[in-house]
Write a structure and sequence with these properties.
Helix content is about 45%, strand content about 15%. The protein contains 3 helices and 3 strands. The chain is globular and about 35 Å long.
């Protein structure tokens, strides 16, 4: 299963999907914590009532309106900081 299986508004909030050795999704990492309804929708799509591999990079919650307004800035800043980490010591 890939990110494309999720609705666009959920795809946008996901930073990374990790898989186990059987190619089953083991962890979904979002920028901010997903809402309970978003988690329930993902669990339904995965057809795995026991899935609880939700994690987020940031711990504070944002509203959908805040996310839409700031997502490009947040994603750019996050990616820029990751690239800066790669350049430390070079």
């Amino acid at each position: 299963m890939s990110l494309r299986n999720f609705p666009l508004y959920v795809q946008d909030k996901i930073y990374e999907i990790r898989y186990d050795s059987t190619d089953k999704i083991s962890k979904i990492v979002s920028y901010f914590p997903l809402s309970e309804s978003e988690k329930q929708e993902i669990v339904f799509i995965l057809n795995d009532d026991g899935f609880d591999g939700f994690n987020s990079i940031f711990t504070d919650s944002v509203t959908d309106e805040e996310w839409v307004r700031t997502k490009d800035q947040i994603k750019k800043k996050f990616k820029d900081e990751l690239f800066d980490i790669d350049n430390i010591g070079s």
